[in-house]
Design goal:
The chain is elongated. The N and C termini lie far apart (about 80 Å). By secondary structure, the chain is mainly alpha-helical. It is built from nine helices and two strands; from the N terminus they run αααββαααααα. α1 packs across α3 and α2 packs across α3.
Length: about 160
């Protein structure tokens, strides 16, 4: 068993520095990798070489470690990014649009029949940002103005 500790320590020193990110230093990740390697010993089957098994295991666990803890200032953690992506795919509350931008047709946006008109009429190139806006995700002011102009145009065409 003593040999395994040395193997794990050497692999941790080789693999971990490749995954340094944010506030995690090289030493932090080496320690994490060492613990991951020790944890992996309980699952070692003895069929393949121990170094190959541990190298793959430590590398995969460090990838997961980095993915789960990586922070992006505009979206938060990786989990937060996933929630934003899911929110984009589903239509949101139209009331948020009327609160952000005021134009003559703003009172029409909240009505169910008008939501249907918008969902049907928003051009594909603007749909992603339109849905992001509905779900409270920040988009550029220029893009937001473009979307509001499109909404205004859609309502003008519908009611003229």
């Amino acid at each position: 068993m003593e040999d395994y500790h040395l193997i794990i320590w050497n692999l941790a020193n080789i693999i971990a520095p490749k995954y340094v990110f944010a506030n995690y230093t090289r030493e932090d990740l080496i320690q994490e990798a060492y613990i991951m390697g020790l944890d992996a010993l309980t699952r070692y089957d003895g069929i393949r070489p121990i170094k190959n098994f541990l190298a793959n295991h430590i590398s995969n666990r460090l990838k997961t470690f980095k993915r789960d803890r990586y922070y992006r200032p505009n979206a938060g953690t990786a989990e937060g990014l996933q929630m934003v992506k899911k929110a984009i795919m589903s239509p949101g509350n139209m009331d948020k649009v009327t609160k952000v931008y005021e134009f003559d047709y703003a009172d029409l946006v909240g009505l169910a029949e008008h939501k249907e008109i918008l969902n049907r009429s928003i051009p594909c190139s603007y749909r992603r940002d339109y849905l992001r806006m509905l779900n409270g995700v920040r988009i550029s002011p220029i893009r937001k103005k473009e979307i509001y102009l499109i909404i205004k145009t859609i309502f003008k065409e519908e009611y003229e």
